[in-house]
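The instructor's notes for this session suggest beginning with a concrete chain rather than abstract definitions. Hand out the sequence below and ask the class to guess, before any prediction is shown, which regions might be ordered.
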Amino acid sequence: MTTEAATRRMPGAPCWVSLLAHGLTATQEFYGALFGWEYRPGPQHFGPYARAYLDGREVAGLGGLPPDRRLPVAWTTYLASDDADTTAEQIRSCGGTVGVGPLDADDAGRMAIGSDPQGAIFGIWQGRSMTGTAVTGVPGTPVWNELVTRETSTVGAFYEHVFGYESEAVVSADFDYLTLYLKGRPVAGIHGVGNALPRDRGPHWLTYFAVSDTDAAARRVAELGGHVLRPPRDSAHGRLATVADSEGAAFRIIQQS
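After discussion, reveal the predicted structure:
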């Protein structure tokens, strides 16, 4: 196992991303055309579910929502855990909630869905036969996960207590950002955006996917029936854009520098 892969398995590190959509076939086609993903069936506990593969290695999960559940469609970031039940108790004791589980997903692992004190939803994954995303850092794979919330201080303490992160703040009068570290390695971020937080979404985790050309990928998103929410722009980590798929699930694409 590479050092990078080992980091993703550390308790608290983002290790998987999953999306539940109303139209699973159309959603699979969207991401297949955008990222080159192929699909194989996964655990069917909550309905149809497939794992997305890139060059034979699993990168993400896509599932179908029941027809009568008109839930918001959003990517869910899963954080690794050595013991999902213990982590669920820690979430509750630190002011969060656990809405689903913990429960077994066949022999793949044990999972739970929780939310932090501000309401941002995230998953917990205790991997067994499936430990999480098998490849990252290349186009079509998740490369970063970031909590978008109102302010970092209160909710940052929650994640530090539950998952043992060390945090480092960006020193800026107008930029509220915490980078979360495990054993000295940056694994995720918390971005406090104040009143710029989307009212229709509230606090949420956001996944960044690598692309080879952000401008071309943003155009492709629109061609496939998605939307460009924030056009391509340069950042300290590469050229990025905020986009949404054909059902409105938001994510970021980044051409890493």
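Then share the key points. The radius of gyration is 17 Å. The mean pLDDT is 92.
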